[in-house]
Input
Amino acid sequence: MEELESEIDSMLNKIPDSKFIVIDCEFSGINPKPESVRTLDDYLLALKEDVEEYALLQIGFCLATYSNSSTEAKWILHPYNFYTYSSEIYNTIFLNDTLLWLRDNGFSLDRWVDEGVDFKRLGDMHSDSVSFITKRTRNNGLHHIIKSIIEYRIPLVFHNGMLDILHLYDKFIGPLPEKPVEISREITRFFVGGIFDTKVIGRYLFEKLDYSLLKSTSLPMLYTNLNSMHDMNQIAKLSLDRSHLEYLDKNTGKINDKLFHEAGFDAFITAMVFSAELGILARTDDLNADELLDFREDKRLGNK
Output
C-alpha cells in the first residue's frame, strides 16, 4: 500500500510541470461494431454501450516534461502502470476471448485481483451512500490524478483513443450523457487542455505531408518507422526514476517489445511516437516542439 501511495504522490508532483500526458487503458471486453454504424453519432453510441458493459482493468499514464538542455533528449518521459479493480463492479461483463488475449500478452489476473487500485467517480467521492464492501479494502487515489489533470489543463494524448477517452470519463467523472452531441460537449468541457491522437496524426503525416513510411498507423509500426526516420533516443528518453520498469534494455537501449499491451508500456511508446510527430510538425511550422502544446493562457483551471 505504501508503494501505491508513493507512485500516486510521484505522479501528482509531476503533473503541474507536464507538457502532455498519455493515457492508455485495458478493458474486460470490446464489442465488434455492427454494420448499422455509419455515422460518427452511431459510432459514439456503440462505444458508449461498450463503456457501460465492460470494466477498466488497467490504466497507464506517461507524463512528458520538456528539457531545454542542449546535451540531452528534449522530452523526458515518466510512465506509470496501475491495475484497476473497482469495488463497485456488480454486473460487468468479462469476455473470455479478451481475458485470454490479455493473459497471453502478459496481463496478470492474479495481480489484477491482489493489487488492483480501487476507484470511484469524482462526483461520488463526497457521497454518503454505502458502497459495496470487497473482501479487501484498497486506497482510492486515482481520482486525485484525474482531478489534477483536469485542474492543470494538461493536454491528453491517446493512440486510437476514443474508447479510452469515454472509459476515462465514465469511470472517473460520471455517467456518459445519452446523446452524442452531449458526450462531445462534456469531453471538451472537462479536458480543456486538448486531446491528441497519434494514430490520427500519423495518418495526417502520411496523407498530407507525404511521409510514405507512416502508411501503417498501428502503434508498433508507427514507433518502428518513426524510429527509423529519427533516432527516438535523441528525441525522448525514459526518466531515471522510472528505469526500474524495464521498458528499455539496459545494454542496447531498445524497447522491450514483449511488453506491448501493458497499459503503462503502451502509454510510454505512445509518448515517444507523439514526441517524434511533434518534432515533424514543429519543423513544418518552424516552431519548437513544446510550443505546439503551449496554448493555454493559464495552466491551472480557475486562475485568471
In short: The CA atoms of residues 119 and 142 lie 6 Å apart. The longest strand covers residues 56-66.
